[in-house]
Fold:
Amino acid sequence: MIFLSVPSDYMPMAIMFVVSIGFVLTTIFVTHLIGPKRKSDVKLDTFECGIEPQGNSRIPFSIKYFLVAILFVLFDVEVIFMYPWAVNFLELGMYGFIEMILFISLFMLGFLYIVRKGALKWE
Amino acid sequence: MEVADLIFKVIFVLAVFGISLLVAMYSTYAERKVAAFFQDRLGPNRAGPFGILQPLADGVKMFMKEEIIPTNSDKALFILGPSIAMLTACMTGVVIPWGNSLIINGKEFVMQITDVNIGILYIFGVVSIGVYGIMIGGWASNNKFSLLGSLRASSQMISYELAMGMSIIAIVMMSGTLSVREIVLGQPGGHWNVLYQPLGFLLFFICALAETNRTPFDLPECETELVGGYHTEYSSMKLGFYLFAEYINMFISSAVIVCLYFGGYNFPFIESLGLSHNVVSLLGTGIFFIKIFFFIFVFMWIRWTIPRFRYDQLMRVGWKVLLPLAVLNIVITAIVLLWKNDLFSLNF
Structure:
């Protein structure tokens, strides 16, 4: 069974978007207006457990986070390829299955490589 | 689209929006009551009978608090962060089928805001944008605790999104569609997907815990190390947005879990009751909400039972356990499906 969406199906999403953004903007604006405003330099300073803030927080951070993000992009693109296959799984049958096994094997090979390289090791 | 349809859609959008907010509000109350029960305390009991007005009091308090934007922060991004988090949390409910259909004056109204053929991908897309809300907010605060919290949050969310995406593929293979409604329709009566996909459900549930930053995956707001995590510098309703977004996400993830694995608004013996179409639909919606509340309770149950992971453990579970298991689940599902449909042959 083929089920196609028409552009008007996306119309209610736009309505929801307008409702949500209206709520968010109104709330931010109203709280800005009705809250007390007793500011002081100390109050607006960066919070570091009450002691004087040391330096800036635009500091270098662990490369691992960046590595995880890059790996996510790589693997997520591969996962996206599997969705069309999964939707048409029964029509594609055995051929599709064998092809996907090849694809998954390559995928897992890449995965094994990054694990062996220690890219996912957190110490 | 006709005018009657459009009016129904607008009303329904407002209803879903209102219900999401209401459920999120009362989830905070329920969480405190559940926590109190687990720890042998009373919980909130001063505002109204049984403390039932506590969420309202909290909401008013959030509204009336002073809005603090630190001098060192990036002001535009500081406001944008929680706004994105709240916006994406509200947007995910659009493709959830809240019930079957209602027949009013001989016209059928489907109880779903919109049924698009990419429903699941839409949910994933919107949830992914939610990561930006936390990332931007944490970075814009210009606070070391916030930065570390947001880094942890984004890193954890993208890692578990991978395993989550993989665990859904098995469901998509079984139902042959990405539309959430069609998946629900594919589980009539008591033929719920969880019976055929127990491993997939387990993987999806664990990933849902991680995606909503709930214990045991709440390292982004680990108070012993990071004070408040990514929302350390936030106050007033902007803090409220982050907290609210978390509870709305919990509600929506429970709804998605119920739709994908627990038959959505379907329940056993649905035909044998002999009730009219509208009554059955409304009953289905009621059952759907009962299932959702059950999963919200499970989320809370886990929070007050299991201690938090260490960060390296969390990453190890996500990448080295859940991901290979999800792949295994896909292969097993594929083999079983081929075997059941007699497709183990190469002659076309």
In short: Residues 17 and 109 of chain B are 18 Å apart (CA to CA). The two ends of chain B are 43 Å apart (CA to CA).
